[in-house]
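User: Sequence recovery, please. Input:
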């Protein structure tokens, strides 16, 4: 009898307690704050959803002097990983100029910008020195937003060839003056002196302000503190050439991010943006492996920022290529992951074919082997111009 009583008491305790225990487990006490919601993963546009569409926006990224050697060295120095590995289609272009198998940046960029082969030194002009309309100018004419970002001066050969028309690349003041003939929505790069310390004493920065631009320079505003508004935006990063990344320049990834955000939705027709990693080339000219890999890493960070934008947007074609290779750079015996032994065959450009990486809508057209001028043709076709 006593046993039976104890047994029933025990079972009452056990079974009586069980539901309470379960309740305690499933419902947190009211004093415990609920756990924060898990951060929502960014929603990327699936490949199938974007690949057969026409792009609304095109971002052309030019790693100046970036051949396969530079890309490989950058990758092995970056934990065997680059953002370039995420691109959908890869091709090769033939980069020679009209007057020389070994191109310079001016002739090569004019091929991308205008779809023509021209002579070394030409900025947006043909072999007869006649101006040829650039894709940036076509885009402007069709009502798209346009932009240029570089780690050289903004009047240097690559950006200049998209916006200016001059017989020689060294005509920096004339190239700066050509910016006044456009309505380019955004430009970020060095070379402030070509705008406001000119031999003709004109102050083109004031003229830009008169045209309705928001103009800022490195002297009074950090790029990170820039608050872009409705106006067209000009930001000058240095008086002359920007520093190498190893000596403190760090604006390209941020500038690329700002440019994507600024351009997005600026025109309902879309945008054309050219972003240049200019100093991979300067590392090649200097036969300096460290210079090449640090600039390559910086450029890849910028590519990553652009890819993040394109993945979310789903309507943006991103093309990454180079104008030419510089230095005849090769990775030598004795190199390891994280340690490059580079060697050079030249302190100038070389004639090797150049890889093209394409992501997003319209990217399929960039597979295969073609002339550098075809990059212009393919971009024009992608835009439907
Ligand atoms: Zn060069």
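Assistant: Recovered sequence (385 residues):
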């Amino acid at each position: 009898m006593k046993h039976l009583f104890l047994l029933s008491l025990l079972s009452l305790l056990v079974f009586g307690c069980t539901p309470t225990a379960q309740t305690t487990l499933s419902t947190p006490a009211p004093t415990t704050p609920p756990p924060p919601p898990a951060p929502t993963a960014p929603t990327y546009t699936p490949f199938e959803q974007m690949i057969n569409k026409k792009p609304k926006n095109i971002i052309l990224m030019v790693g100046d002097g970036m051949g396969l050697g530079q890309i490989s060295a950058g990758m092995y120095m970056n934990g065997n990983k680059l953002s370039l590995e995420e691109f959908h289609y890869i091709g090769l272009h033939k980069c020679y100029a009209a007057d020389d198998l070994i191109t310079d940046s001016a002739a090569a960029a004019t091929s991308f910008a205008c779809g023509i082969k021209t002579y070394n030194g030409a900025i947006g002009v043909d072999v007869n020195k006649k101006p040829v309309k650039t894709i940036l100018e076509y885009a402007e004419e069709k009502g798209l937003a346009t932009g240029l970002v570089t780690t050289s001066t903004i009047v240097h050969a690559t950006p200049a060839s998209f916006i200016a028309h001059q017989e020689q690349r060294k005509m920096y003041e004339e190239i700066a003056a050509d910016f006044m003939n456009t309505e380019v929505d955004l430009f970020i790069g060095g070379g402030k002196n070509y705008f406001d310390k000119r031999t003709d004493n004109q102050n083109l920065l004031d003229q830009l302000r008169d045209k309705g631009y928001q103009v800022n320079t490195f002297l009074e505003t950090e790029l990170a503190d820039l608050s872009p508004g409705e106006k067209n935006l000009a930001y000058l990063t240095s008086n002359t050439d920007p520093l190498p990344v190893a000596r403190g320049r760090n604006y390209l990834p941020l500038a690329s991010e700002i440019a994507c955000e600024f351009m997005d939705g600026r025109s309902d027709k879309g945008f054309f943006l050219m972003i240049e990693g200019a100093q991979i080339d300067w590392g090649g000219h200097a036969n300096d492996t460290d210079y090449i890999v640090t600039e390559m890493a910086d450029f890849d960070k910028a590519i990553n920022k652009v890819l993040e934008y394109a993945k979310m947007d789903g309507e943006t074609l991103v093309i990454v290529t180079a104008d030419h290779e510089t230095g005849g750079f090769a990775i030598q015996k004795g190199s390891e992951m994280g340690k490059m032994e580079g060697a050079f065959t030249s302190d100038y450009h070389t004639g090797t074919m150049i890889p093209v990486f394409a992501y997003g809508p319209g990217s399929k057209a960039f597979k295969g082997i073609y002339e550098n001028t075809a990059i212009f043709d393919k971009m024009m076709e992608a835009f439907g111009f």
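The chain is about 35% helix and 20% strand.
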